[in-house]
Design goal:
The protein is mostly helical. The chain has one domain. The protein contains 14 helices and two strands, in the order H-H-H-H-H-H-E-H-H-H-H-H-H-H-H-E. Helix 3 packs across helix 10. It is a multi-pass membrane protein.
Length: about 325
Amino acid sequence: MSAHPALPLPPSAMQSRNESLGLWLGLLGVVIFALTLPMTRLAVGTPADPQMSGLFIALGRAAAAGGLSVLFLLSTRAPLPKRADWLPLALTAAGVVFGFPLLTSVAMRHVEAVHASVIVGVLPLATAGVGALLHRQRPSTGFWLCAALGSALVVAFAMLRSGDGLRISAADGLLLLAMLFGAMGYGYGGRLSQHMRAEHVICWALVISLPATLPAAWFSWPTVPVRTTAWWGFAYVAVFSMWLGFFAWYRGLALGGTVRVSQVQLVQPFLSMLFAVPLLGESLDLVTVGFGLAVIAIVFVGKSQATTATAVQQKAKP
């Protein structure tokens, strides 16, 4: 007997499979990104024990990842981006190559990784908002309620940790501004990944940034010896946070949708805290674990809420 040919999946089943794969790839990206703050803290040091400068960590890691990107684009014979893609690539670079890394690197010398991790909790909602605008999506009320509840839990956790309310220091302000840049870079990068290879999106964003990042990294190179652990932290944020993590993240956004997959980021603050314990010797208590489990539960409820796309009305030019 001859085997029957496999029947193609119906559109609804294919969409469901893509969304599930997108969520898993998004989670992989989030796990990689969750180590960014602890590793940045290792690299930048503290006010009492400074290591590398925030400028070098931010632009040096982009320059190193840009060099890897050149090799990757050449080895995969990547085509040049289309004319219409250059502006979105520039906005992607402004968000994830310059804005987010520079602001977080400067802030991380003045705050602990556990504290900074809770500020990252606003990133999923910001990313979802940018994604909804860019992709003409209309998330359901249930989705927004889950997103708002998850973000509210993160803010409540920050208030509990602070002891006297959430005090917005200069470092906290830099972190919050970094979240806006990150959301912009994620939104535009996810949009480009719908018609470009996800790996090529971040690679091109890094390559077009090289004229700025390479000389900046050269002039900000550490002039005094730094610890080996600081170099390990820098190596991680250069290879994983700035490069490989985006391979999974942008592919996940393209498959599962920016609005939906962005909510997986709600677990990132608590993963960062878990990583900070062995890496930096910071403490983790039952309150943190409880909030983490609550946020994870909300993420899985939120991902089941429907998201519908609205038609884009194109007006004919006279």
